[in-house]
Amino acid sequence: MPPANLPPPLPGKKRRIGVLTSGGDAPGMNGAVRAVVRMAIHNGCEAFAIYEGYDGLVKGGDMIKEMRWEDVRGFLSEGGTLIGTARCMEFMERAGRTKAAKNMILNGIDALVVCGGDGSLTGADKFRSEWPELLQDLVDTKELTADQIVPFKHLNIVGLVGSIDNDLSMTDATIGCYTSLTRICEAVDSVDTTASSHQRAFVVEVMGRHCGWLALMAGVATGADFIFIPENPPDSDWEEQMCRTIKKHRAKGKRKTIVIVAEGAIDENNNKIPCGMVKDILSKKAGLDTRITTLGHVQRGGTPCAYDRMLSTLQGVEAVKAVIEATPETPSPVICIVENKIVRRSLVEAVAQTQEVAKAIGEKDFNTAMKLRDAEFTEYYKAYRITTAAEQPDLLLPESKRLRIAIIHVGAPAGGMNAASRAAVAYMLARGHTPIALHNGFPGLIRHHSDEPLGAVREISWLDAEGWASKGGSEIGTNRGLPSEDIETVSNVFGKYNIQGLFVIGGFEAFTAVSELRKAREHYKSFKIPMVVLPATISNNVPGTEYSIGSDTCLNALIQYCDACRQSASASRRRVFVIETQGGESGYIATVAGLSIGALAVYSPECGISLKMLDHDIDHLRDVFRKDKGQNRAGKLILVNEKASKTYTVQIIADMIAEAGKGKFESRHGVPGHFQQGTTPSPQDRVRAVRFGVKSIQHIEEFAGLCKDEIEDDPASASVIGIKGAKVLFSPMENIEKKETDWHRRRPKNEFWMELKEIVDTLSGRPGYPAGI
Ligand code: ATP
């Protein structure tokens, strides 16, 4: 019987797979190398690291090394690339590629995984297309014999996109871009406070020669006043436009100004817009005390963020699958991600499309440049513009279409709740709606007395919300209480304040609250209004989506905690940390954190914990430490969801391990608790919050002008916004409540991430256990 928790090795030819990292280093490259090496070994293949990028391939010798399982231990949390990278001029020439082909054959390597930017992938594509000719040259020049090349007729190449500026078309994210964005946002958040204190302006230059992704996302995440990106230069009167926007923000009471400039920023005529020029304009025309901050190599990132660890791991796994499944006819794939789905795309097409962007920019065809970026990029750009630009008279809706839309936070705080609210408010104001905050959740409404000066129902001004972009917690207050505590009063308050649309941000309670309001429409017509739930919870357990805002912030807090535990073990060695994670009845956080830190095992409520399971894992630990020759300096981690077992708490598990260790290894437990809610929300949570905040209000305003019964009759009038696979969609509550919700366990019936559990186990080397454990 195959092991219950591990996939059997994939059928197919056992390959000898080389992996290299090339071009600029990017955080997460090491995670990709680790995943390729271990997934290859798990599937009976051999893995080779090619050091220093294509340079190692051209030079051969000891720059190509077979990798054992333990050689990539500790790789996940390291920034940069541990196998080195280089810009290799020799590989640009055919002679260099011929040498590279010879070294591949001498080492018996018949498949290559290349992790790098578009240049590296262009090189990879060229290498594969020339491969038969390169082999023939080697035979003709007697470097190799005809017999030697026979087993290597077909070369398989798989691309992984490792690049901080997210410049490859056809993928939403490249390995490294979110870590880089994290460093940028940390820097902008830091200058933000000094800017505000002195009422200064800061011009921040970020990387991106042909791609404005980092500048755009930093602008969205930090609520910058103005951005410059290469794909979409500002109008010819940009100097006045920028000053008007900034003066308007200042006139409303904003004390600081942040302008973000991509290093490749240009005007309509392709003239560079340098930071110095922006600074001079802000100083002279807007009269602001202005400073420049150039972030430079800080943006290369250092320690990878949770997303980059996960992305690189999943893509490395997919790359090996692609190699094993490849036939001689299979075109080279590049592994991409679209929303939440890992997909294979044609490497040739992705590279060609990427180069088209640079070409379009060069030809001043900026419409095409924007179109060639993915749909998400354009959506973010529009969301940014709508929520920041000063004059947008064309956006204003006629009086008859303007709504009074309330925002309420429900449940525990989650990173991004404020960013979503801020974006929703800015969008509403741009459209002429009235944004209203319902403070402290439904209990706040129920306790509400309208004669109090600070009642629970208040209109939100632009300035109220302006500073919320990067704030953690909940600025309008949140509460777990549900409308059913006093639905009559809730209805009365809705009626009294003429609430015409409801935007609910929160976790499973938010979902439950909207379900209650929807069902109560039968008796209370004040609930016959459009309502949207934006899932926001660290547990990521809301039905109707695979991603809740706040979960990424939590993962980052958790891996920071785990990295610190690991490091503390480096002095004492041979220590097993058993760490309790939050997540309620959903093992998502534990599993994805486990994937991101390379946990030895993850215990989730979905699978529970049995004595046999513990016994099995303790046996494995004995084995690991028995064979240990000092490689386990950094200790081992086991993650346990808080509800995985009532009996086996982290303390008990740690004690059992320590007891079994008999002095050969020891164990400690840790409970990060509320630390997991994080402090400042992660950039990914912030940008997605903005995008979903705007989309949610756009959805609500579609119902403007309809009568109450028409609204009630449309199932989409009570919806959850979410990511499902490669799509962002609104799912009607009615369907999800009935078909997709496990009400008892407060989680979706089908949890998309369950398949990640076997990847955690496969890559940590946890032996499979028989079914029934
Ligand atoms: P980044 O996005 O960080 O710049 P990149 O992969 O685009 O990464 P490049 O310097 O363009 O970085 O390319 C890295 C290496 O890939 C080059 O030094 C060269 O060895 C190889 N390479 C790039 N373009 C080609 C090409 N057209 N033909 C052959 N090899 C190439």
From TrEMBL:
Residues 390-403 are annotated as: Interdomain linker. Belongs to the phosphofructokinase type A (PFKA) family. ATP-dependent PFK group I subfamily. Eukaryotic two domain clade "E" sub-subfamily. Mg(2+) binds at D118. Residues 404-773 are annotated as: C-terminal regulatory PFK domain 2. PANTHER family: ATP-DEPENDENT 6-PHOSPHOFRUCTOKINASE, PHOSPHOFRUCTOKINASE. ATP binds at G24, R87, C88, G117, D118, G119, S120. Residues 1-389 are annotated as: N-terminal catalytic PFK domain 1. Its EC number is 2.7.1.11. It catalyses: beta-D-fructose 6-phosphate + ATP = beta-D-fructose 1,6-bisphosphate + ADP + H(+). HAMAP family: Phosphofructokinase_I_E (MF_03184). The active site is at D165 (proton acceptor). Beta-D-fructose 2,6-bisphosphate binds at residues 480, 537-541, 575, 582-584, 642, 668, 674-677, 746. GO terms for molecular function: 6-phosphofructokinase activity; AMP binding; ATP binding; fructose-6-phosphate binding; identical protein binding; metal ion binding; monosaccharide binding. Its cofactor is Mg(2+). It comes from the Eukaryota. Its main location: cytoplasm. It holds the Pfam family PFK. Pathway: Carbohydrate degradation; glycolysis; D-glyceraldehyde 3-phosphate and glycerone phosphate from D-glucose: step 3/4. Keywords: Allosteric enzyme, ATP-binding, Cytoplasm, Glycolysis, Kinase, Magnesium, Metal-binding, Nucleotide-binding, Transferase. This is ATP-dependent 6-phosphofructokinase. It is found in: Cytoplasm; Mitochondrion outer membrane. Catalyzes the phosphorylation of D-fructose 6-phosphate to fructose 1,6-bisphosphate by ATP, the first committing step of glycolysis. Substrate binds at S163, I164, D165, R200, M207, G208, R209, E263, R291, H297, V298, Q299, R300. It is an enzyme of class 2 (transferase). The keyword Acetylation does not apply.
